[in-house]
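pinned: reference chain
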Amino acid sequence: MGEEIILTAHQPVYLPWLGLFHKIALSDIFCYFNEVQYLKKDWNNRNKIKTASGNIWLTVPVLTGGHRDKKISDIEINNSINWQKKHWRSIYFAHQKAPFFSKYSDFFDDVYNKKKWERLADLNKHMLKWFLDVLGIRVQFLEASQFQFKGKKNDLVLDMCRQLKADTYIFGALGKDYVDVESFEKSGIKVVIQEYNHPVYTQLHPGFISHLSIVDLLFNHGQRSLEIIMENNIAKEDLLVSRMQETG
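pinned: its structure tokens
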């Protein structure tokens, strides 16, 4: 039997939460699913950070009109609004006193003050790849636009697994609402539904707030961030052991 391949995928999201990085850390291949439909009021273009007065939303403005028919890869940023300066200032003032702010701030300064972004998916991909690198998560990074996956929801994921020769696929928690486990098992693919236990960690400002952007954890805990993300959660080694036991 050859080496087991664990696959997961996710649509482009802005400044992702911790659970996404746990899911990617479990995988060998991550597919950046930039070919799905853009969703308004979702996480594609916004996320939350913690400030001295509580959490706030950072939202990347996008050009309105025709969202229903547009893939995320086609969504353009509305640069008539000076969102980059606003996001940089919000991140700076919320986190400047965090222990590891100076270690990582140059990247955000570059993203918000020195680069100009035309498409949302490009911005999200640039930041996601950097987050994965500094966290130490090593996976093969593919993009759905490189392939021609067919079908919808369950069938789309199954076709992706077949084309990428995956043995195990990790769904996020919402996957349980539409996955047909039997269809995967018939193809010899194990289904894992992620159940993420969010860690409690030291933050700036009184009171702990969960489900924030990864930037909060990174600025507060630096190199320990991945260890904290994985606390009290299944590890990749556990998935591989269970797969070997099932296949004998």
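why pinned: The first strand starts at residue 6 and ends at 10. The mean pLDDT is 92.
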